[in-house]
Amino acid sequence: MTQASLSHFVLAILVATLPSAAATSQTKPIRIGIAKTFLVDQPKSIAEIAEDDFKDVLKKTTGLDGELASKYSATEIADKLGRKQLDFGIFHAHEYAWLQKKHPDLRALLIAASKQPERAYVIVHQNCPAKTIADLRGKPVDMPIGTKEPCRVFLEKYCLDAKHKDLAAFFSAIEKSSAPNDALDNVARAKVQAAVIDSAALDFYKEVRGPVFAKNLRVLQQSDAFPRAVILYQPGTLVEATLNQFRDGLLKAHANADGRAMMKSWGIEAFEPVGKDYDKRLAEVLKAYPPR
Question: What are the residue ranges of helices labelled H in 30-139?
């Protein structure tokens, strides 16, 4: 995730809460933790800038004081929610699935919804003899900067074992292109054996470089759709009015031009209530990707 994308995600939350900001008399800052897996490959300075921007924009747009913490793991955020040291936590769905047994009291407030499914893809050259990810052992792969966590989880499912404790042990080299398009170009030019990207990146590449993909590339393996990222809270931490203000503002964010533009930049169509099948999907992702 880039500095811009993280900031846009945070700003989307801030703008969404604006209409009902006056409804709550705030007694303490709203404390939000975003799992640091959203910031893999990003320098510390980007997180610090985003945290400072969050405080300023939250105050200016809602009149509420708030603070964002991006340095904690999903496990640490869940623990802090349980101890009421944080008000909200932003997690990948598979992280929530991993944590449910230890933290059964955590509740999902909303999900970050999109019309496009969240899938991981491993792309190879059409001339590549590999039939599965296992055939890429000892080959170079490109995981562009900002590769989303579901892509990493999907790849590790097929690469890690008793002999290969991490991806670096499985592949001969892991390149870090600055963007997914560059990673796919590297595969097309046979500079690396494969690239790991998500649905949005693949669709964008096909849109702007469709002939290159059709002539040179193919999908080696793809994941099933991952459940969407989720906002969690610990019941009883916030007064009901503040919780309702936060939730209701997010539900209306897509109707706000600024909020809609910000969410679009992060790949979000809208914030939505948790669907009836969300627990079922969490169980499925837990079965497919057990905790590491």
Answer: 44-62, 74-82, 93-99
CB 228 within 8 A of CB 118: yes
Closest CA to 33 of 64, 4, 70: 70
Instruction: Single out the residue of 237, 269, 266 nearest to residue 50, CA to CA.
Output: 266
Six token digits for residue 286: 């837990």
- Are both 3-115+227-288 and 120-222 of the same fold? yes
Which two three-digit tokens encode residue 16?
A: 């969404």
Q: Comparing C-alpha atoms, which of 86, 105, 84 is closest to residue 96?
A: 105
Place of tokens 């939350």: 13
pTM given for the model? 0.85
Measured distance between the N- and C-terminal CA atoms of the chain, rounded to whole angstroms:
22
Is beta strand 173-175 parallel, antiparallel or unpaired with respect to 140-142?
Answer: parallel
Which pair of structure tokens corresponds to residue 39?
């910031």
Beta-carbon count within 10 A of 108 CB: 17
Say if residues 91 and 112 touch (Cβ distance below 8 Å): no
pLDDT in tens, 232-267: 999 999 888 888 877 877 777 677 666 566 566 566
Q: Which residue has the tokens 């008793």?
A: 162
Q: Kindly state the tokens that stand for 175.
A: 């390149």
Rounded to the nearest integer, the mean pLDDT of the chain is 85
Per-residue burial over 21-55, b if 16 or more Cβ lie within 10 Å, else e, is beebeeeeebbbbbbbbbbeebeeebbeebbebbe
Fold of the CATH domain 3-115+227-288: D-Maltodextrin-Binding Protein; domain 2 (3.40.190)
| Domain 120-222 fold | D-Maltodextrin-Binding Protein; domain 2 (3.40.190)
pLDDT at residue 57 tops 60: no
Single-letter residue type at 8: H
